[in-house]
Amino acid sequence: MEKLVIIPTYNEKDNIRQIIGAVISLQQDFHILIVDDGSPDGTGAIVKSMQAEHPGQLFIEERSGKQGLGTAYIHGFKWALAKGYQYIFEMDADFSHNPKDLVRLYQACAHEGADVAVGSRYVRGGKTENWPWNRAVLSYGASIYVRCVTWIPVKDATAGFVCYKREVLEKIKLDKIQFVGYAFQIEMKFTAWKLGFTIKEVPITFIDRKEGYSKMSKGIVKEGILGVLKIQWQSLFG
């Protein structure tokens, strides 16, 4: 019991069965925790129906209502630490992250000296596919903005495909993480970096979702813009 992939879900019935199957088919002993925020489309029920097929490997935590990506991951991190996992992963349910890249993220942390491995779109070899131009510009611009404001040496600080060593999550005060949307990913990486942990970016191809709907909103973008300023301000003066 070493590796846990946390997948937050809200209305992912079109993807959930396939993404679980893809992770398990790697045959690398990845366990999966679905954190479902009361999906009205029945996502949670699909996961529970699959648990008998994958005993001891597939788990679900159900929460009441949509509470935000950040709180879903924090819930999952605490669950993983309590269960003794050594490598804890974040991954989307919509196949924008290729499950096969989980192996490369694990290798970076287990054998290549990383404490945090980030599946990165913006290092050499990384790229995006099928993204509308406005999303691509927004994302790349955000990555530059984050580096300019925080000085963090990570080119894809907003990335949501990540492997953390247990020691990182144990040292981060998870209850003090403030943001739940776009800025959550930035805050987690920034905090790990400030604590002295080594972050390695692993090039990936990010593919825009084919099924379901994007969770991006104006509120999430606003949180990202203002949140980055707040993160750096608190680091300097807090």
TrEMBL record:
GO terms for molecular function: dolichyl-phosphate beta-D-mannosyltransferase activity. The keyword Glycosyltransferase applies. GO terms for biological process: glycolipid biosynthetic process. Residues 5-172 form the Glycosyltransferase 2-like domain. Pfam families: Glycos_transf_2 (PF00535). Gene3D superfamilies: Spore Coat Polysaccharide Biosynthesis Protein SpsA, Chain A. One of its GO terms (cellular component) is membrane. Keywords: Glycosyltransferase, Transferase. The keyword Glycosyltransferase applies. Belongs to the glycosyltransferase 2 family. This is Polyprenol monophosphomannose synthase. It comes from Chitinophaga barathri.
